[in-house]
Amino acid sequence: TIPLLYKLKKLTPAPPSSSSIPNPSQTLNDKIGLVRGDITTLEVDAIVNAANESLLGGGGVDGAIHKAAGPGLLKECKGLGGCDTGSAKITDAYKLPCNRVIHAVGPIWNRDWAEKSEKDLRGCYTTSLQLAAENRCKSIAFSSLSTGVYRYPSRDAAQVAIKAVKDFLEGEDGDKLDKVVFCTFTDKDADAYDEWLPKFFPPV
Ligand code: ADP
Asked: Which residues form the Macro domain (predicted)?
């Protein structure tokens, strides 16, 4: 089982008037988790990899996932024909403790194309959640897509991620997922989720 820091932390809810988030959800709190560490160790149904368009492996979390999964993963990925930015594809998990890997291709951050970057990042989260639901994965853990070498600002990325998850859980397929975990690795991402999760999902 995975530790869920968010649920354990006693956070002071912001007063409603100071919240800029429309309709924060306390009822969906149980479905949200926040962990810090190596996503390859999580025993969830699906983990989400920050892949690149080739789907043929890379550095960062992608490298860690391929290393822990073993060569079978790269072999399967070679048959997928790549993936568009803003979308995702699903594979088996081989030697990983999870059941499936969802390979999402986040945008390379570009301040001149901020709207396009945001749309693509949101697309990664939404497509990954849909793929999980379609494949009967009940629990899913996301790495912080695009916030590494793709340079997406962590505070902005966290808000896009959390909003996309909230919208999905409130939508028609939301009841197909029991747990959505955000897995952070660096200080800047951990700080961003500490700041924004309680605004979207205020502690009860
Ligand atoms: P991108 O190219 O999408 O930015 P990166 O792999 O460089 O992908 O980074 C994505 C995020 O994954 C970064 O926030 C990075 O700190 C994080 N990360 C790197 N290794 C791991 C790991 N083993 N488990 C979880 N997150 C990781």
From this structure: 19-201
